[in-house]
């Protein structure tokens, strides 16, 4: 009998609990600070933006957090998600390595983002919230929250980074189909947006600016809360359903990863796959190499400073310790919009500081080249963000070929690229530039980091 290509779990095998890596870390996560007092924040400081149930998940150190049944009921639309063995890619590469990928593009929104959008909408609806505001880059998060808001009866307003708003009109159409309102950021709808446009009328936008606009609106209304698609602890917690399923599926395949790869922007899909495996290693199990792949044009893990910084550009958010390029840093308008964030999730940053993961950066042409190789071998066209993970996995497979090692590689294919074909057209036409950030702007942004007492 031939080796299976895909490994499928039954709905009854879907995890009933999320995994919290904080329970297993050798050192606790540095506290979140109030920018005014420089003291650790409390639940009341977050209450204007989040319902208490999510605030509790943000601060808990319990190893397991139960997934509510109404959330699991929606998850059954696409979960458990498949795990694939990339037989054809292995053959194309001529590698002795075994390559597996967890495919999150099977969700209705086409990416891993509904894994957190659904529970966030559920908890907000439970708390009596009527409206949600959020930001989005490429649109995977925005379309996911739009869908979740519709399922739980919430109005959703999405501030989409201007360059992505222009690059990806079909993502915008998807958000509107789900019933959300999509606004190009920076916009004239907020005080901060108007301020940015007054100084830079053609500003391409950034996730930091879009977050500022969404937070500003949410803080003004009692019936409105803010939802974030990455970075925060509770978002990474929700995404661990990816890795928990993958662990069961690797057992089905009678295999275990020697190397685990994920793309990193804010950190949610990467942590979703990696954290359960890292935790397993911390509790005495096998310890695979963990490789985070980021864009060379926005390299927070490889070039950023590990320091306290604001999560947004207007400085409306608390201070978190993370790998950051500086909250005022505006990345170039490269096509992996979901990876254009100035900082990295505090938990991912902390795990890197503990030496539990390594990071590499690639240009967008390198990543699109890998995505095309993958699509022609496996049939799935990856999103530009996921192309970074594909590139990382291919590099590991080619290393195995050079070294004659039959290692097992697992990566997260976090979404499909069906709404990103314009970027593929530009790649084939030779019009996809490897944009570089401005070194002077980076130095200036890093020089403006908040001063936090030791």
Task: Kindly describe this structure.
One of its GO terms (cellular component) is cytoplasm. Residues 76-415 form the Tryptophan synthase beta chain-like PALP domain. This is Tryptophan synthase beta chain. With 454 residues, the chain is of the alpha/beta class. The protein has two domains: 78-110 and 234-445, Rossmann fold (3-Layer(aba) Sandwich); 114-228, Rossmann fold (3-Layer(aba) Sandwich). It is built from 19 helices and 15 strands. It has helices spanning 43-46, 52-59, 69-75, 87-93, 114-126, 140-151, 162-167, 169-177, 191-199, 207-220, 233-239, 241-252, 268-282, 300-303, 346-353, 364-378, 384-403, 421-428, 439-447; strands spanning 6-7, 17-19, 64-66, 83-85, 98-103, 131-136, 155-161, 181-185, 224-226, 259-263, 289-295, 305-310, 319-324, 358-362, 408-413. Helix 2 packs across helix 11 (233-239), helix 3 (69-75) runs antiparallel to helix 5 and helix 4 packs across helix 16.
Fold blueprint:
Layout: E1 6-7, E2 17-19, H1 43-46, H2 52-59, E3 64-66, H3 69-75, E4 83-85, H4 87-93, E5 98-103, H5 114-126, E6 131-136, H6 140-151, E7 155-161, H7 162-167, H8 169-177, E8 181-185, H9 191-199, H10 207-220, E9 224-226, H11 233-239, H12 241-252, E10 259-263, H13 268-282, E11 289-295, H14 300-303, E12 305-310, E13 319-324, H15 346-353, E14 358-362, H16 364-378, H17 384-403, E15 408-413, H18 421-428, H19 439-447
Parallel strand pairs: 5-15, 6-7, 6-9, 7-8, 10-11, 10-15, 11-14
Antiparallel strand pairs: 1-4, 2-3, 4-5, 12-13
């Amino acid at each position: 009998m031939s080796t299976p290509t895909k490994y499928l779990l039954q709905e009854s095998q879907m995890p009933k609990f999320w995994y919290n890596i904080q329970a297993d870390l050798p050192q606790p996560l540095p506290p979140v600070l109030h920018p005014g007092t420089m003291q650790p924040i409390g639940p009341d400081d977050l209450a204007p933006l989040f319902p208490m149930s999510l605030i509790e998940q943000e601060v808990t150190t319990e190893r397991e957090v139960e997934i509510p049944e109404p959330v699991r009921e929606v998850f059954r639309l696409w979960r458990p998600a498949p795990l694939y063995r990339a037989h054809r890619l292995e053959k194309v590469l001529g590698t002795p390595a075994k390559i597996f990928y967890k495919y999150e593009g099977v969700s209705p929104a086409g990416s891993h983002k509904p894994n957190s959008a659904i529970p966030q909408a559920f908890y907000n609806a439970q708390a009596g919230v009527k409206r949600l505001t959020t930001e989005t880059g490429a649109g995977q998060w925005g379309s996911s929250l739009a869908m979740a808001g519709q399922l739980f009866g919430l109005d959703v307003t999405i501030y989409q980074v201007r360059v992505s708003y222009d690059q990806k009109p079909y993502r915008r159409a998807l958000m509107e189909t789900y019933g959300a309102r999509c606004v190009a950021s920076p916009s004239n709808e907020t005080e901060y947006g108007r301020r940015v446009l007054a100084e830079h009328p053609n500003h391409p936008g950034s996730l930091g600016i879009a977050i500022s606009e969404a937070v500003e609106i949410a803080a003004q209304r009692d019936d409105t809360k803010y939802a974030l698609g990455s970075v925060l602890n509770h978002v990474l917690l929700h995404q661990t359903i990816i890795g928990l399923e993958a662990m069961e599926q690797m057992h089905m395949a009678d295999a275990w990863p020697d190397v685990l790869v994920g793309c990193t922007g804010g950190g949610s899909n990467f942590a979703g796959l990696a954290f359960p495996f890292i935790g397993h290693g911390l509790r005495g199990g096998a310890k695979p190499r963990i490789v985070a792949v980021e864009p060379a044009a926005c390299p927070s893990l490889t070039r950023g400073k590990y320091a306290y910084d604001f999560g947004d550009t207007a400085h409306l958010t608390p201070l978190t310790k993370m790998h950051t390029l500086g909250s005022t840093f505006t990345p170039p308008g490269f096509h992996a919009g979901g990876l254009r964030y100035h900082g990295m999730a505090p938990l991912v940053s902390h795990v890197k500081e503990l030496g539990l993961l390594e990071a590499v950066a690639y240009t967008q042409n390198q990543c699109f080249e890998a995505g095309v190789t993958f699509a022609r071998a496996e049939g799935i066209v990856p999103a530009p963000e996921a192309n970074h993970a594909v590139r990382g996995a291919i590099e590991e497979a080619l290393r195995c070929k050079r070294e004659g090692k039959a290692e097992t590689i697992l990566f997260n294919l976090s979404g499909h690229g069906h709404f990103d074909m314009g970027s593929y057209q530009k790649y084939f036409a030779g019009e996809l530039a490897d944009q570089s950030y401005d070194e002077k702007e980076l130095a200036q942004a890093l020089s403006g980091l908040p001063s936090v007492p030791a």
